[in-house]
Design a protein that fits this description.
There is one protein chain. The chain is 96% helix and 0% strand. It is built from 1 helix and no strands. The longest helix has 94 residues. The radius of gyration is 42 Å and the shape is rod-shaped.
Length: 98
């Protein structure tokens, strides 16, 4: 009977050891999953911030392009006025023998 008790004790010890190992693997897996979830959440937060930054940059770019267009039109207007003023000055000088 002692041999049966010893075998049962060994089997029980092995079962407890295997259970401890399984629990250890499960805890490791859970920790990895939690770390992955935290990483995923951080990446999603970064992606959201990048999207917001991109939207703000797009607005700024649109405003800058509109301003550049207005400045170009103003530059063309000033250039036309200068040409007109120079032609007027030439015609006045020509009329007065200048």
């Amino acid at each position: 009977m002692a041999d049966v008790d010893c075998i049962e004790k060994t089997s029980l010890t092995d079962a407890v050891r295997r259970l401890d190992q399984a629990v250890g693997h499960l805890e490791t897996s859970i920790q990895r999953r939690m770390d992955a979830d935290r990483s995923l959440n951080a990446l999603q937060d970064d992606l959201q911030r990048l999207g917001e930054d991109r939207s703000q940059l797009a607005v700024t770019l649109d405003e800058s392009e509109a301003r550049a267009s207005r400045l170009e039109e103003a530059n063309k207007d000033v250039s036309r006025r200068l040409v007109s003023a120079m032609e007027t000055i030439r015609s006045v000088l020509d009329a007065h023998g200048g």
